[in-house]
Design brief:
This protein is mainly alpha-helical and 487 residues long. Helix content is 74%, strand content 0%. It is globular, with a radius of gyration of 23 Å. The chain starts with a helix and ends in a 13-residue tail after the last helix.
Length: 487
């Protein structure tokens, strides 16, 4: 009975141990899920019910009873989408669209921004601020953006509403992308659901490769280098300029490995289930400018912001100045989406300014020869800017960010580099591995994935077991949550 009790306790929600792709519990449950899913895949209704049930349980293990909020959101959106589709009045359609977006943003605003706005209001009126006891549901920003894009696409007649609520909640709650993206677009996902095609051999093992790659990025590299990065950001005044610089470089690599690692695992799991979620990262640190960076980093968010914020604001259709303003406002919203704090607003604003500067400089930049030297100079400039902005993203406060940057420029001693490498050689090796992989052409990454998918099973097993051994070797006492869980 004690064993049964322990198993039931493990399966219950615990705020201290949410279900993670990098945790053993998920993979045990997923290995039980996948054979049943494979058997009922062609029985569409059964597959929908089973997968939705698993997705809601997955969300329950991540956010507790907040899975009921997701269910309520899906019922409201699905109902309104059908009312929009059936309505013949343009004004009624727009009113319904406004109602849906208002409900979605109000729920998101309450959970994510209520304390932020109350804090700022109390600063203005000089009252004591007592924060509300609000728990942020994991992944609410992601599925809220999905629900908004679905309603907008129905309104604009880009898609038809799903014929059943079950199909819609399948789309909204699809567990690989539920808690940290990618942000799934209905116009790309629903046709795949309608087709209900099984995964091919190449897709299954390409998915396995992405899962392995994601585990390497997250459980081995990101979690390991985070141990040093946390020391720097938790004590900004306690380290030298060189150590602070290494912490900033480390976080630049950490956030990429952490988030792209999650995306790789999510996309890989979906591919095994027969769904293509596209790509979410395309070697972003290869970018020669900020415009290119945002076409390579968190692609599902940047394209969502482009299609549902930037273009509705007017895009580039109303002159140069208006284009710059629209870019700035879009990135400002993108910054606020990431977190309810002024440091995120500043981070988004600076990226907006950077995009405007790049667009304004394009006539001059186009006159510069496009060769190996200039490409790498521009890549270095872009990476320095992005890395410096990550300091504001990670630091506990705006003041801490300025302290770390000031420390880098005023307390830097290059002679500390060799002793640093000697003490933290494993950390340096991992940083170097990611830098070198960014030097590899993107097409080669795809060819490696296809090679793995079609190579002998014994070699696939060897690679998998090697990764498992590395995870065991570098794994800390506690499984670190994904950075983007907080968004």
């Amino acid at each position: 009975m004690e064993i049964v009790h322990n198993i039931l306790s493990l399966l219950k929600y615990s705020p201290d141990s949410p279900m993670l792709f990098s945790g053993g519990l998920f993979w045990v449950i997923f290995l039980l899920f996948i054979p049943i899913y494979s058997v009922i895949k062609n029985k569409r209704t059964q597959m929908l019910i089973f997968t939705v049930a698993f997705s809601l349980y997955f969300y329950y293990k991540s956010s507790g009873l907040f899975f009921l909020l997701l269910v309520c959101t899906s019922i409201i959106d699905w109902t309104i989408s059908h009312l929009i589709a059936k309505s013949t009045s343009k004004y009624r359609k727009k009113a319904l669209l406004t109602l849906s977006i208002t409900i979605s943003l109000s729920v998101l605003g309450y959970f994510k921004y209520a304390n932020f706005f109350l804090w700022n209001w109390n600063q203005i009126v000089e009252n004591n601020f007592q924060p509300l006891d609000i728990i942020l549901p994991v992944g609410i920003s992601f599925y809220t953006f999905q629900s908004i894009s679905y309603i907008v696409d129905v309104y604009k007649q880009r898609i038809s509403p799903t014929s059943s609520w079950l199909e819609y909640i399948f789309f909204l709650s699809f567990f690989p992308a539920l808690v940290a993206g990618p942000i799934v677009r209905a116009d790309k996902f629903l046709p795949q659901l309608k087709e209900n095609r099984g995964a091919t051999h190449t897709e299954i093992f390409s998915g396995l490769w992405l899962i392995i790659l994601g585990i390497v990025k997250k459980a081995i590299i990101a979690d390991y280098i985070a141990q040093y990065n946390d020391l720097i950001f938790d004590n900004p005044t306690g380290y030298s300029g060189l150590e602070s610089l290494m912490g900033a470089i480390g976080y630049t690599i950490q956030i990429y490995c952490d988030f792209s690692g999650y995306s790789d695992m999510a996309i890989g799991i979906a591919l095994i289930l027969g769904f293509n979620l596209g790509e979410n990262f395309r070697l972003p640190y290869q970018s020669k400018n900020l415009t290119e960076f945002w076409r390579r980093w968190h692609i599902s968010l940047s394209t969502w912001l482009r299609d549902y914020v930037y273009i509705p604001l007017g895009g580039n259709r109303h002159g140069v100045v208006r284009t710059y303003i629209n870019n700035f406002l879009t990135m400002l919203i993108g910054g606020l989406w990431h977190g309810a704090a002024w440091k995120f607003v500043f981070w988004g604003a600076m990226h907006g300014v950077g995009l405007a500067v790049h667009k304004a400089s394009k006539p001059m930049l186009e006159k510069i020869p496009d060769n190996f030297v200039t490409k790498n100079i521009f890549r270095a400039i872009t990476l320095v800017f992005v890395g410096m902005m990550w300091i504001f993203f990670r630091a506990a406060s705006f003041e801490d960010s300025l302290t770390i940057i000031s420390n880098i420029f005023t307390n830097f001693d290059i002679h500390q580099l060799v002793p640093f490498i000697e003490v933290r050689y494993t950390w340096c090796i991992m940083i170097s591995v990611i830098i070198m992989t960014h030097m590899i052409p993107y097409d080669l990454h795809n060819r490696i994935k296809l090679w793995f998918a079609n190579t002998h099973w014994a070699l696939q097993l060897l690679i998998f077991m090697t990764v498992v051994q590395l995870v065991i070797q570098f794994m800390g006492e506690d499984i670190a949550p994904f950075i983007y869980f907080q968004f």
